Amino acid sequence: MKVLELLDEIEEIVDTSSGFPLTGKILVDAEEILEIVKEIRVELPDEIQQAQWIKDERQRILEEAKREYETILKDAKVQAEALIENDDITVKAKMRADEIMRVAEANVKAMKLGAFDYIDSILYNFQDKMDQLNSVYFHDMFSNLQTTFEKVNGTIADNRNEIKEMIYRAQMESND
Fold first, then answer.
1. What is the pLDDT of residues 100-113, one digit of tens each?
2. Is 76 exposed, middle or buried (0-12, 13-18, 19+ CB in 10 A)?
3. Do 92 and 59 share a structural domain?
4. Which of 52, 130, 149, 176 has the smallest number of Cβ neighbours within 10 A?
5. How far is CA 87 from CA 31, 70, 80, 94, 128, in A?
6. What is the number of domains present in the chain?
7. How much is the pLDDT for 48?
8. Quick one: how many helices (H) and strands (E) in the chain?
9. Which domain of life does the protein's organism represent (predicted)?
10. Same domain, 144 and 71
11. What is the per-residue pLDDT across 61-70, written as a single tens digit (0 to 9) for each?
12. Contact 140, 5 (CB under 8 A)
């Protein structure tokens, strides 16, 4: 996958960068690293971009529900005012207005809950995908780092053994 290749490229830059003696720090080209990070962002799965879409969609659904609620409320008021002329009609209008309000509020509540359930399921799926990505990418990255450190330690141990062998030979030659 392209992201792993880009991570390998960062690792190669870090491995081949010149270091500052005795500090454990290295000098890297910031522009080069930032360019690779931008490429990684471009390559990341669509689920990350879907999070923004989910946020926007949630806001749109809530605004639409609010507009519908306000429209229903205005219609109820208009109908109620038109029926005020007669007491019997006024009582029925108030009952109808209350019923419309209850229905509107129930519809708004149902739409909100539906939107929240929908967003929650999308976020749950997104969270699952992020967990999967974490287990795949970070496991590989740390495995590669561990292998690199093991190789470096092996090389250092070999070099130390060579030096000890040279010291031993030098001591043997000076004893002769």
1. 999 999 999 999 89
2. buried
3. yes
4. 176
5. 79, 26, 12, 10, 60
6. 2
7. 62
8. 5, 2
9. Bacteria
10. yes
11. 889 889 998 9
12. no
DSSP character at residue 135: I
- Same domain for 53 and 137, yes or no, is yes
DSSP state of 1: -
Same domain for 63 and 107, yes or no, is yes
Give residue 70's domain range.
48-175
Euclidean distance between the first and the last CA atom of the chain, given in angstroms as a whole number:
62
Residue for token digits 């109820």?
A: 76
Report the residue count for the chain: 176
Whether residue 26 is found in the same domain as residue 2: yes
- Same domain for 90 and 110, yes or no, is yes
Note whether 103 and 171 are same-domain residues.
yes
Write down the pLDDT at residue 156: 92
Question: Rounded mean pLDDT of 129-156?
Answer: 86
pTM score, whole prediction: 0.32
The interaxial angle of helices 2-16 and 139-175, nearest 10 deg, is 30
Tell me the two tokens of residue 33. Answer: 């690293």
Instruction: Report the pLDDT averaged over residues 80-89.
Output: 67
Q: Are 164 and 100 in the same domain?
A: yes
Q: Rounded to whole angstroms, how far apart are CA atoms 137 and 135? A: 6
* Cβ pair 47, 130 in contact under 8 A: yes
The SS3 call for residue 22 is coil
